[in-house]
Amino acid sequence: MVKMVRSTQFSILLLLLLSATSVCGSLSSNIVPSGILSGLKNRPERRSETSSLLHLKGGNPPKRVAILTAGGLAPCLSSAIGFLIEEYTLYDPQIEIICYIDGYKGLLKGEYLVVGPEERKLASILTYHGGSSIGNSRVKLTNIKDCLQRGLVKEGEDPQKVAAEQLVKDGVSVLHTIGGDDTNTAAADLAAFLKRNNYELTVVGLPKTIDNDVYPIRLSLGAWTAAQQGALYFRNIVNEHSANPRMLIVHEVMGRHCGWLTAATAKCYRDDLKAQRMLPGCGLHFERLDVHGIYIPELSIDIAAESKRLKQVMDRLGNVNIFISEGAGVDDIIKQMEEAGQEVPRDAFGHPKLDAVNPGKYFADKFAKELGAEKTMVQKSGYFARSAAPNDQDLALIKDCALKAVECAMLGQGGVIGHDEETPNLELRACEFNRIAGGKPFNVDEGWFKSMLTEIGQPFKGQHPTHPKRPGKPNAPVRCSSEQDIRKKVDLKQ
Is 326 annotated as a binding residue? Predict the structure, then answer.
C-alpha cells in the first residue's frame, strides 16, 4: 500500500525552513579562485515570472513527475528541487509533482510528498538551504542482500522490479534523479527495465557531487560551493597552530578518486589569505597561515622527501599545515589494513568507508614523528562543506541545469544534464547514460594548480602511475573547469 504524505505536511517543512536562521551572505569574491569560479557579483534571480519553455507547449506533457535525491549531500539538492518545482509550475501547473522521501528507499516503500499549490508558490525558499529537504539514502537497487537486510524488500523480491512497479503504480512518466553516477545510472536501468515491459519512463538526472568527478560533465553541481566552504572552515581551524608549539594540522578534504576539491579548496583558501593584512612584528605571519603541502590521489607522494621538506618548514615557522584528499593513499592504507587482518567496512555500493580507513590520521602519523611535531590535529571539512547552501555561482549553474532538465523531460530526452566535455562548445545537454561514469581524475597539469605547488615550495611529481583513467578511453585527455569555459556556458545573470 502506498503511503501518502499530504501536501500540507510538505508546507510545514517549507515553513520550518523559512523560520530557520537565514543563510549568511556569500564570502568575499577574494575566496573565489580565479580560473575556477566566475566571481558573480549579485545573486541570480530565484523566482521567475514566466517559463522560458513556453515555445515547447503542445503535444502530450507528462501527467505526473517525480523527484528523487540520493547518495551523499551536496550544496545543490534543495535548490535543484526548488528550481524544478518552480519551472514545472510556470510551464504547466496541471503537471503533478511528487517527491520520494529518502531517495530510493522512499521509492521502494512507496513513500512520497505531494507538491501542492502552497509548495509551488514557495518553492524558491528551498534555494536558500543546504541538504535535501526530501531526504537522501544510500540504496543500491542491485544489492538485493542489503535491501533485504534493511527491510526495503521482502524475501524473493527483486528491488529493481519493486521500484519499477512502484513507478508504474504511482503513474510517474518523468523521473528526475539528483545524485552521482550511481544514482543516475540506477535510474537509467529502471527506465530500460520498464521499456522492456512497454512502459515509457523518461529519466532526466542532475549531477550531484562535490568531488567533481563525473564523466563527461565539466562541472558537477555543488562543487563550487564545497570548495568555498572548505576554505572557510580552514580559515578558522588554521588558528589552532597558535595553541601549541610545533603544531601539525592536517586538513582532510572529501574526494575519493579525484583531487579537484582538495586543490580548489586550497586555492580558495590561499586567495582569501593573500587578501588579508598581516602583522609580522606581532607574530602574525602569512607563511604560518599558508598551506605547506597538498596531497591528492592523482599525484605520487614521496613520504620521505616530503617529510624532509616539511621538517625544514616546521623548524623555520614552528608549524605545518597540509591539505589532503580523503582518497590519497587509500589503496596503500587498505592493503596494510587487510594484511594486518583488519576488515575494511564498505557501503552498499562496495566503496570502502573512508571514515574507517582514515587517510588523514594515516598521513598525520607518518609525518608527525619525522617533523618532530609536539601536537598533531586532523580536521575534516567534508560534512561542513557538503551540507552548505549553494553560493551564487553554483546557484546559477543549478538553475540553468534544472531548466534544461525540464526542457529535456518535455522533449522525452533522457540523460544527465551538464556541460558535455566531449562536445566542441561544452554544450549544456542531456548526456547519454551509457557515457556517465564516476572517478574522473583531476587534471594535475592545470596551470593554476602547478603554480600553487610552486608557490608553496612543493615539487610536482607528476601523475600517480596507477591512478585510473576513463574506462574504454585510456588516453582520453581530462579537462577540468576553467573560468573561460564556464563563463561561456553558464548564464550568470548580473
Answer: yes
Cell of 224: 563550487
Is 157 found in the same domain as 177?
yes
The DSSP element (H or E) to which 62 belongs, if any, is: none
Q: pTM score, two decimals?
A: 0.84
Which residue among the candidates 102, 146, 182, 211 is catalytic per the annotation?
A: 211
Q: Which residue has the higher pLDDT, 350 or 430?
A: 430
Q: Are residues 471 and 372 in the same domain?
A: yes
**Model confidence band, residue 344 (pLDDT cutoffs 50, 70, 90):** confident
Which pLDDT belongs to residue 57? Answer: 72
389 annotated to bind ligand:
no
Domain with residue 16: its CATH number is 3.40.50.450
Shared domain for 75 and 132, answered yes or no, is yes
**Active site (annotated) includes residue 315:** no
Asked whether residue 207 falls in the same domain as residue 347, the answer is no
CA distance 126 to 178: 15
Which residue(s) pair with 194 in the sheet?
A: none
DSSP H or E stretch at residue 323: strand 319-325
- Decide if 483 is inside a domain: no
Residue-wise pLDDT for 415-449, tens only, equals: 999 999 999 999 999 999 999 999 999 999 999 99
Q: Residues 383-414: pLDDT tens digits?
A: 999 999 999 999 999 999 999 999 999 999 99
Is 70 exceeded by the pLDDT of residue 213?
yes
Q: CB–CB of 191/458 below 8 Å?
A: no
Residue 182 in contact with residue 140, Cβ under 8 Å? yes
Q: How far apart are CA 162 and CA 453, in angstroms?
A: 51
469, part of any domain? yes
Local structure of residue 58 (DSSP, 8 states):
S
Separation CA 442–CA 145 (nearest Å):
34
Please indicate if the annotation marks 181 as binding a ligand.
yes
Is 386 marked within a binding site?
yes
Residue 439: closest CA among 227, 183, 214 = 214
Same domain, 403 and 367: no
Structural contact between residues 106 and 47, judged by C-beta atoms closer than 8 angstroms? no
256 labelled ligand-binding: yes
Task: Please check if 255 is assigned to a binding site.
Answer: yes
